[in-house]
Specification:
By secondary structure, the chain is of the alpha+beta class. α6 packs antiparallel against α7. The chain is flat and about 70 Å long. It starts with a helix and ends with a strand. A hairpin with a 4-residue loop joins β2 and β3. The chain has three domains: 74 residues; 69 residues, Signal recognition particle alu RNA binding heterodimer, srp9/1, CATH 3.30.720; 60 residues, no CATH class. A four-stranded antiparallel β-sheet has the order 1-2-3-4, with helices on one face. Strands 7-6-5-8 form a four-stranded mixed β-sheet, with helices on one face.
Length: 247
């Protein structure tokens, strides 16, 4: 009787030890991939300061030429005594860099990945996706793309993030990752009046082409979403638009 009790006790102890040695679940763990704000701002400040110094150098060079564009403003700028000219130009360039840096941080992509959801944030706007909505996450050039099980794009965002970190974040939490679009060969170049598009899609593509020509990225994003609602996936290559319809 004592032997059986000892055996059960040892078995329970081994079972408890095994449970303690098992890795903890990562269901509540979130991997975040984002561009460091301080690095982005610091880079822009450095570029702005360098640009300010370069401006003074170019102004000095322009004044030695018989004819040059903006020679008048260059002579006016060069009339400021040193070291005030150089210090002022560098300071002004650095301040401009701070502004550009904050804009860049605001426009940059942040990705949060967990087993229960994926959150993509751009320009203070966030979208959440559940695992059943995502068939594959992929890199398409400089863009992060999420595809649904039926092949429809549910997200496409410009990304300056390290791609190996983005891939690791998705695969770590059980999502499928691809370094290329599995439907890439299905895209066709769009021209006005292209046959095969759903009703209303051609007009949206015309409007989107105009928005991209005017560098209206907000309108272009909204029109992309309108096309998705019609079942049309669109991608850009330079100034050209390409489209496909999921199977």
């Amino acid at each position: 009787m004592s032997t059986d009790t000892d055996t059960h006790t040892e078995t329970d102890a081994e079972s408890n030890m095994a449970q303690r040695q098992q890795p903890k679940t990562t269901d509540d763990h979130t991997s975040t991939v984002a561009e460091p704000a301080w690095a982005t701002v610091l880079f822009c400040v450095a570029c702005g300061a360098a640009g300010g110094w370069l401006t003074t150098a170019l102004a000095d060079w322009f004044t030695t030429l018989r004819w040059a564009p903006l020679k008048g403003p260059a002579e006016l700028l060069n009339s400021i005594p040193e070291p005030g000219l150089t210090l002022g130009a560098i300071t002004g360039g650095a301040l401009l860099g701070v502004l550009v840096g904050f804009i860049a941080v605001h426009e940059s992509l942040t990705v949060h990945v967990s087993r229960s959801r994926v959150t993509i944030t751009v320009r203070d706007t966030s979208e959440e996706f559940t695992p059943d909505q995502i068939e594959v996450a992929l890199r398409d050039g400089k863009q992060l793309v999420l595809l649904s099980p039926n092949g429809l794009e549910i997200a496409r965002e410009d990304s300056g993030l390290p791609w190996h970190r983005v891939a690791e974040a998705f695969t770590e939490h059980g999502y499928t990752w691809s370094d290329e679009d599995p439907y890439g060969d299905n895209f066709r170049r769009w021209v006005p009046g292209t046959p095969g598009l759903p009703e209303g899609a051609d007009a949206l593509l015309i409007a989107r082409a105009a928005a991209r020509k005017n560098d209206d990225s907000t309108d272009a994003r909204e029109l992309r979403r309108d096309l998705i609602r019609l079942g049309v996936v669109v991608r850009d290559e330079g100034k050209r638009q390409y489209w496909r319809i999921p199977n």
